[in-house]
Design goal:
This protein is 5% helix and 36% strand. It is mainly β. It has one domain (4-11, 19-173): Jelly Rolls, CATH 2.60.120. Strands 1-9-6-11-4 form a five-stranded antiparallel beta sheet, with no helix packed on it. Strands 8-7-10-5-12 form a five-stranded antiparallel beta sheet, with no helix packed on it. A two-stranded antiparallel ribbon has the order 2-3. A hairpin with a 2-residue loop joins strand 2 (10-13) and strand 3 (16-19). The chain is globular and about 55 Å long. It starts with a strand and ends in a 24-residue tail after the last helix.
């Protein structure tokens, strides 16, 4: 599987709008192959907050369906499948309450996001329960990943990080054994 950018249809009228944020059959037809078991919701007060790069190892590896409920985020997926020709490569998309985009990130990818404004809320579905014994992460500023975090777009010069995220290791120092399914990381599909 690869990362997919989804744009749910909005039905707009004088009251505002309505959209389906998940429809199992429709999303499966678009390539979202996951049986979601848990919903997560985060709030980040300051602009420039980075959460991640996080993952869970098997048997609790997680696929995620991410959306921004309030504000804007720079959402990142990093290929962590060692046999993949795109191992260590990443793709990113802006998700916002305004654009309504969602990013599907299959298991085998690390996930992170950075808030592009104050007061951002992010919600995401996962297909495996949180299991702290299998969690891992990669440092946000790993030079080998070459992620161009848009700090200036957030109006900051340094990100806001949790103590845990600030000390995550470089990818070269992380043991990952995610299976490669024959599909390298592609440019974002929509």
């Amino acid at each position: 599987m690869t990362v997919i950018l989804l744009t749910p249809r909005r039905f707009v009228d004088e009251r505002g709008w309505f959209m389906e944020t998940f429809h199992d059959r429709r999303y499966r037809d678009l390539g979202v192959k996951a049986d979601f078991v848990q919903d997560n919701h985060s709030f980040s007060a300051p602009a420039g907050t980075i959460r991640g790069i996080h993952f869970q190892r098997a048997p609790h590896a997680q696929a995620k369906l991410v959306r921004c409920l309030r504000g804007r985020i720079f959402d990142v997926a990093v290929d962590l499948r060692p046999e993949s020709p795109s191992f260590g490569h990443h793709i990113a998309a802006e998700l916002s309450a305004e654009n309504g985009h969602q990013l599907f990130i299959p298991a085998g990818y690390g996930h992170a996001f950075m808030t592009l404004g104050v007061g951002c809320e992010v919600a995401y579905k996962v297909d495996a329960h949180y299991a702290p014994e299998t969690e891992g992460g990669v440092r946000w500023d790993d030079p080998g990943l070459a992620i161009d975090w848009p700090l200036a777009d957030a109006g900051v010069t340094r990100p806001v990080l949790s103590t845990k995220d600030a000390v995550l290791p470089l990818l070269a120092d992380v043991a990952v054994d995610f299976a490669y399914d024959g599909r390298a990381l592609l440019p974002i599909q929509s």
